[in-house]
Write a structure and sequence with these properties.
The structure holds 2 protein chains of 2 kinds. Chain A is an alpha+beta fold. Chain A is built from 29 helices and 27 strands. In chain A, a hairpin with a 2-residue loop joins strand 4 and strand 5 (201-204). Chain B has a 3-stranded antiparallel sheet. In chain B, a hairpin with a 5-residue loop joins strand 2 and strand 3. Chain B is globular and about 60 Å long. Classes of the chains: A alpha+beta, B alpha+beta.
């Protein structure tokens, strides 16, 4: 019996065999068939006959399929498949699809890869920001290659040393006598913090410059108001920055107004834009070079004063070397005699303005400054972090290669060439790196303010849109994608299809050596960073806690804004402060430890010029030595009753000076004579004090001489900290009473002194953060690896457990290999870290020792962190029920 | 019988013209063609569907599934605006061919 439905079903099944016919097409054809059958049947045909006829009418199924195929494929390619002219490689979309599927399917691994790379890229972006800023210093001035600072090089028997400032008339003289000089300008930076007054506003101000109008012709300093060509021509004129103008004038127009600076009147003749962060000229006010009532020695050739930074701009095409030679003798032409007296040869030298920020000339020739050190350290560490992140990626990709081996096998069997596979996997790594870049940019955006705090910069998120940064970050992502992807790509594409498809390739068994090397590398870097961090902090601690040779606790220092504030009235001032029982003692001095100090030219043994030396000179009262707790080794301290101490200017010297003067014995030093100045006055040494640190422990202790001369800049009060607020307010009231027109400014010696370590502190913070990030990324990788290995050995663990292995044994089994890796990483890291630390510590005159315990501590720390990371996975694997892992066998 | 090439060339204008009078489904379209051509245009029924599919892909017609009163699923086709334009172009082409041939096949003038 003929069953129509069955026949149609059979027919439909036949159609299904044709790959070109999709379900919808078949349904439509079926509907047609049924219609035809019905039609035929209504004309009296049997179902069977009608069915046969309808099928014949529908026609050749192959032909229909072929037509559909043509229609469906026509739009993909008008050309034969081997002649593809589409812009994308044939399987591009397929590759993309697979890449995103892999990211979605393996969320954990993708997270590790992306977060790791993102953190690495973010670090690098921060470094790019920093380095770019540092390298851009003063680059924006027009014709910057022709701008130089003229410094003085001092050459004597004891070697060469450079001074950045020059003789006051040097600039104008050069311009007058050398046609090569287009502009020459002088800048003096106020040594102290002058008091600026306008109306009822009065503050101490830093960064006050004194300069010629030429300054505005040499450097790019845009004016907001006023005329740059004449602004500083008149005496006692001032040009303000915008921020300064806001502080004092708010809404008022400052032009033509009069400011009082240290009780002198200055007329405002211009307002300029604030200097950008990337210039070494960070001024707030520029005063005219001509100021009335200044002592005459501040204008003429005077050998002992070098207060003017001298900038010149050369004519285009002038040879720098030749010009430098020509002007080198100028100091001698003018004051040769005086300079000879000082036992040294002084020559002019040119310093390109762009070098000022990064190189210092203050000692033997050109030497990198701390800024450059920062750049090096920052860059190296940033690259290391990026390296750790890339290693993660390589590691996990190769480890998980087993998951991809089937795909590689299939692709190869259907004709993929190795190059295509390499491109596919490189493409995947690029997709991951670009996703990471987006995450990294988000991280940078969110943590920019933290970074600003750390690096002392003022970036806003808008820097991320600067073309250089955009291009740079794209280049970075490309680099990371290629660097991290190349090894996995080559590794994966090398699979032999026969072996992978037959199942010979044991998952993850290949490339294990490379993986070990990578993990060792990652942890090597992390351990080196840990060691570096510990050493930086240790040195910092050492510097903070090392006895300084004086007592820095409980010392409050009042700052006086001029040399003549206390002179004759000193005894009264001191008495007034000592009235408060909380103030136990007081002393006045020209300097306090940690702050700048002058030098004095003296002849300790004989007055031949070559015997001259320039030790630091501290002018102080009779109580300085006792208030600061400095130990006398020989002789006696200054005494107020001894009129000769004060009038004849007897000396007390420190041990370093004793050695430097070539005097052998302590006792013999007392009563020896020191010759001072061109008049060859002779003075007596009355005592020797034990060496104490004037500057931070980066510096060696220099020779110092002390005199009882009332040229005081600081009053030090020994205060009892018990009820500090009351004492402070007492001091402030007294200050107002004694010095009504002075700003009340004070600091504590201990905190002020430790400010010298802010560079090292910052370095420590940077290292701490980078170390943390490095370890974090390395641990992410380790976590992934541990998970992978645990997964690989699931069955082994299952069998071991059924045979009675304890959980601890299995955890140990899984962790053992990692422990070995980390131990090897230590061997790699130790010598490298030691060399780096040793080199860094050379910057310090006084250094903490690099003990073995630092290395051991770092090793233990790394091991604990690694074990903690691994044990997560190990414990999870070890406690899982063996039934679950063995059920499917 | 009309040659295969000519049948293939004419399917597009014919289908579009039929759909111009309203939406229709495959089986009916074939019946219309047979009726109009008096059986001279002979298609294999099944070949209509790939053609419809192509026209739809080209955007000349659109389709939707509907269930008839008898509960049979039918795919109805509908001419689009683009299809109407296309039909105009086709029409012009066919008419110019027709005009050219008509001229050529006029009875030759005789010289008595």
């Amino acid at each position: 019996m003929f069953d129509l439905e069955k026949a149609i079903k059979q027919w439909r099944k036949e159609l299904r065999k044709n790959e070109a016919l999709e379900d919808g097409y078949i349904t439509e054809l079926e509907s047609h068939l049924r219609e035809e059958i019905e039609n035929q049947a209504s004309q009296g045909m049997s179902e069977e006959e009608a069915f046969e006829k309808a099928i014949t009418a529908v026609g050749d199924v192959e032909g229909i399929g072929a037509e559909y195929f043509k229609t469906d494929t026509r739009q993909l390619s008008g050309l034969p498949s081997w002649k593809s002219n589409r812009p994308m490689p044939a399987l591009f979309w397929n590759y993309t699809k697979i890449a995103f599927r892999k990211i979605r399917r393996h969320k954990g691994y993708s997270f590790i890869n992306i977060v790791g790379l993102a953190v690495g890229i973010a670090c690098c972006l921060f470094i790019i920001l920093f380095v770019r800023l540092e390298l851009s210093f003063d680059a924006y001035h027009p014709d910057v290659k022709q701008i130089f600072r003229v410094g003085l090089m001092r050459e004597s028997d004891s070697g060469k040393s450079a001074q950045v400032s020059n003789l006051i008339p040097m600039g104008p003289t050069l311009k007058e006598n050398y046609p090569q000089v287009r502009n020459a300008g002088r800048v003096c930076i106020a040594f102290s913090q002058p008091t600026v007054k306008y109306g009822d506003k009065m503050f101490k101000e830093e960064d006050i410059y004194k300069a010629d109008s030429e300054l505005f012709r040499i450097f790019h300093i845009p004016f907001v108001q006023g005329d740059p060509t004449t602004a500083l021509d008149g005496p006692n004129t001032a040009v303000l920055t915008e921020s300064f103008t806001e502080k004092y004038f708010s809404e008022e127009n400052p032009l033509g107004k009069t400011l009082k600076i240290n009780e002198k009147d200055f007329m405002v003749t211009g307002v300029v834009e604030n200097p950008p962060p990337n210039t070494h000229l960070q001024f707030r006010i520029v005063l005219s070079y001509e100021i009335t009532d200044e002592p005459p020695w501040m204008r003429g050739w005077h050998a002992l004063a070098f207060p003017a930074l001298t900038y010149i701009k050369l004519m285009p095409g002038v040879s720098t070397e030749e010009f430098e030679k020509q002007i080198s003798k100028v100091p001698h032409e003018y004051i040769g005699e005086q300079l000879k007296e000082m036992g040294a040869v002084y020559t002019n030298f040119l310093q390109p303005v762009r070098d000022i920020h990064l190189y210092s000339y203050t000692t033997e020739g050109k030497k990198p400054t701390r800024n450059l050190t920062y750049i090096y350290i920052f860059s190296v560490v940033g690259v290391l972090i990026l390296l750790i992140a890339c290693m993660n990626f390589m590691n996990l990709s190769t480890a998980r290669s087993a998951n991809r081996s089937g795909e590689v096998g299939i692709r190869k069997v259907v004709g993929a060439k190795r190059g295509q596979l390499v491109r596919q996997f490189m493409g995947e790594s690029l997709i991951t790196s670009f996703i990471s870049l987006i995450v990294a940019l988000t991280i940078v955006h969110l943590t920019l303010s933290l970074y600003n705090n750390l690096a002392g910069t003022k970036f806003t998120s808008s820097v991320l849109f600067q073309p250089m940064i955009v291009l740079g970050s794209i280049a970075l992502a490309l680099f990371v994608g290629v660097a991290a992807g190349i090894y996995p790509a080559i590794f994966l594409s090398a699979f032999q299809p026969v072996s992978v498809l037959k199942g010979f390739l044991r998952a993850g068994s290949r490339g294990s050596l490379m993986r070990k090397v990578l993990v060792v590398g990652q942890f090597g870097i992390s351990i080196a960073l840990i060691i570096a961090t510990i050493i930086v902090y240790r040195q910092l601690n050492y510097m903070r806690n090392q006895p300084l040779g004086f007592d820095k606790e409980q010392k409050l220092v009042l700052v006086l804004s001029g040399w003549d504030i206390i002179k004759d009235n000193y005894d009264i001032v001191k008495e007034e402060f000592l009235r408060n029982p909380s103030i136990t003692s007081a002393t006045a001095s020209s300097g306090v430890p940690g702050r700048g100090i002058n030098r004095l030219w003296i002849y300790p043994s004989s007055d031949e010029p070559e015997n001259g030396q320039a030790p630091m000179i501290l002018r102080c009262d009779q109580d300085f030595i006792s208030v600061y707790g400095i130990k006398m080794l020989a002789g006696r301290p200054f005494q107020k009753e001894m009129r000769t101490d004060k009038l004849s200017g007897n000396f007390i010297i420190n041990e370093a000076a004793l050695k430097s003067f070539g005097w052998d014995s302590l006792v013999g030093a007392v009563d020896r004579q020191i010759i001072v100045g061109s008049r060859r006055n002779k003075y007596k040494v009355i005592g020797v004090v034990e060496d104490f640190h004037w500057y931070g422990l980066q510096n060696a202790i220099e020779p110092m001489v002390m005199r009882f001369v009332s040229m005081y800049r600081y009053i030090t009060l020994n205060v009892n900290t018990e009820n500090l607020p009351q004492t402070l307010s007492f001091i402030e009231d007294k200050h107002r009473e004694l010095f009504p027109d002075q700003v009340f400014e004070y600091f504590f010696v201990d905190t002020d002194f430790n400010r010298q370590y802010s560079f090292e502190e910052r370095l420590g913070r940077i290292f701490r953060i980078f170390t943390f990030l490095g370890i974090f990324i390395a641990c992410l990788g380790l976590f992934g690896m541990a998970a992978f290995i645990a997964e690989q050995r699931t069955k082994e663990i299952g069998i071991r457990k059924t045979l009675g292995a304890p959980v601890s044994g299995i955890v140990f089994l899984l962790s053992k290999e990692f422990i070995r890796w980390i131990l090897i990483a230590n061997i790699v890291a130790w010598p490298l870290a030691y060399i780096a630390a040793h080199k860094w510590l050379q910057n310090f005159a006084f250094r903490a020792n690099i003990g073995l315990e630092i290395f051991i501590l770092s090793a233990v720390l790394a091991l604990l962190i690694a074990l903690f990371t691994v044990s997560f996975q190990a414990v999870k694997a070890a406690t899982s029920n063996p039934v679950d892992s063995l059920r499917y066998e | 019988m009309i040659s295969k090439a000519l049948v293939a060339a004419s399917t597009k204008p014919i289908i579009l013209s039929i759909l111009l009078s309203g939406e229709n489904y495959g089986y009916q379209i074939i019946q219309s063609v047979k009726r109009i051509s008096g059986g001279k245009l002979e298609w294999s029924d099944g070949m209509l569907y790939p053609v419809l599919h192509r026209l739809e892909k080209d955007g000349f017609i659109s389709s939707k599934w509907k269930t008839s009163h008898e509960g049979r699923l039918r795919k109805y086709y509908l001419i689009t605006d683009l299809g109407k334009e296309e039909l105009e172009t086709e029409k012009k082409q066919w008419l110019s061919v027709h005009a050219a041939l008509s001229k050529l096949w006029k009875p030759l003038p005789t010289f008595d």
